[in-house]
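pipeline stage [seq->struct] | target=ascorbate ferrireductase (transmembrane) | organism=Drosophila mojavensis | residues=288
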Amino acid sequence: MTEHLPPVISSTQKVVDYGSTARADTAKNLLPQSPPTALTARAQRSSAFVHLNESSGGHRYSRMSHKLPLSETEQPLQRLEYSLNVLNQMCIGFVTIYISYLTLQTGLAGTGLHAWLVTIGFSFFMAEGVMVHYGGNVLTNSYKRSTKTTIHWILLTLGGGCGAAGALIKMIQKGFMLQSVHGRLGITAFILCLLAMSSGLAALCSARVKKLITPLLNKTFHNFLGFVCFVIALVTQYYGYETGYFKSRTKADFQILMKCITLISLVLSSYGPMKGLYHKIKSISRQF
């Protein structure tokens, strides 16, 4: 009659614990019970370690990247962008409220209606529209991209419509004979506004016109036209404070203040569109 000896475990054998308690219990029940020895105790202690080089997920965890906290890298710049955006919103609100008060007080007719429409269209709706996708915009930062796109189209449609209508009223009033710097810039902004709205419609239907031009190139062209239109429109607003309509109703110091606020709004509003335009041009350059 043969005697059942306990299984001998070599000291050089690797024992890997894969974490399966069910298999361990089954194997424990199948093996004959034997009193623990020093060799088996050492094998049980070594089974608590998992060899990463033999596991399937070892290489995956070794490639895991560790990002720095936001507070150490991007938070100071983000706070600065938020602060500048709040300042910009205050400048936009001040210009819009004052021009609305001035034109409503004198009556929305002729030059008053022209000044109110271009201010509402370019200085308010278009300024807010070009900043919708800007990450530092405190008003739209928490929205989804699809929601931002919808708000962008609504604001720019209202801004372009009001601004073009206001410029057209003045051109009809002057018989399209505008010789001043303010008038010539206004005509340029009017033409660019129509072109930007047309390119925006093409960008919205980019899936249909992708056979003629790629969607990325079409959107880049639309962003460029819209940005140039916005810049010229705000510069036109700047020279509008030198017209007789504004000079006869405000003091010289206040005219300088309005010019400074308009320029600050122009610079702060342009940061987001320039940043987005830069990334689009960079993406286009990689394709060639």
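stage status: PASS
auto-comment: The chain is about 70% helix and 0% strand. The two ends are 84 Å apart (CA to CA).
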